[in-house]
Design a protein that fits this description.
13 strands, single chain, TIM Barrel
Amino acid sequence: MNSRERVARALNHEEPDRVPIDLGATIVTSIARDSYLALRRHLGMGEERPAMLDYVQQLPYLDEALLERFASDFRMVQLPSATAPGVEVFEEGEYYAFVDRWGSKLHMPKSSGYYFDWVDFPIKEPTLEALDGYRWPEPDSPALNRELGKLARKLRETTDFALVGSAVIGGGIFEQPARTMGLENFFIALASDPAFADRMMGRITDIYIESCDRYLDEVGEHIQVFTYWDDLAGQDGWLVDPAFYRRYVKPKQRRLVEAIKRKTEAKLFYHSCGATRELIPDLIEIGFDILNPVQVSARGMDTRALKRDFGRDIVFWGGGVDTQSVLPFGTPEEVSDEVKRRIDDLAPGGGFVFAAVHNIQAKVPPENIVAAFDTALAYGRYGGAARA
């Protein structure tokens, strides 16, 4: 069974020969630059200066040799945010800095910095006048999307990998406003002026639909999975009142989903960190097929219970190993035991793709990364062939 066939069966809630494995197919299932370089050294793959996929999270492009080493069943068909038009890193005092395509400035310390953080925003006040005067970003050009279409067609015709794409040019409909005006100001606006927040999220939805239309016109027939991210939960539950979500955010997400489904038959992947158990019925109703990252350390995210209650209706992509505690701080044996436990909970009946819970962070021991993915490959076979 090849990768594309394996993934198709798993995403259709059927058992393939083994659990599909994802490393690096999305910007939420990859590995930070520091750990990537350490892993390459550990595997004897040598040093390299990797091209960057995502400046904010410090995610590099993963080379083909490493993807093959860990039996990743997926390949990405996506323009990296690090190469978006006009996005260039420069030095600003003690920091590296860049201005993103939404006009916000980000900083990362030159010494011991692991990520870029948002530090200045183009929208200073939550007023309708500020929205009227704001210069909204443009979706990727037709020429860039045509190049992606050529890449997608080539990968589909010359490989058997499952192809994953996205055309979201920022955070999600709920998440992006905080990146454009600051989290505190946006949350104040949610409470004090919901009409402002509603209009801002509506404009973002319009931009995302146009971006997705352009991308999917070129790529939609070639990909198997389309990814979208919009964090709505924290460690202990919702970031906003569920009633607010269902009144203001959910209808916009539904509009985006309907637009995407008009252009592709790919399965729709939804990423939200945190305690998302109470969100799952809404995602199923809207039309999402996949939940990621399945943050097993958050409240209510017991993998056995999630599979029991929602496993017929949504695919769990992630949850394969806890990246908050076990992967960075456990022994290789503890990591392997954790992977086996999650596979036992989530794999039966299909509907599971193995990945770490979100990106593998900096300073994770390479031995633990190897233990996680090697265990997933050996233990994740259906029919009991390797369960021991």
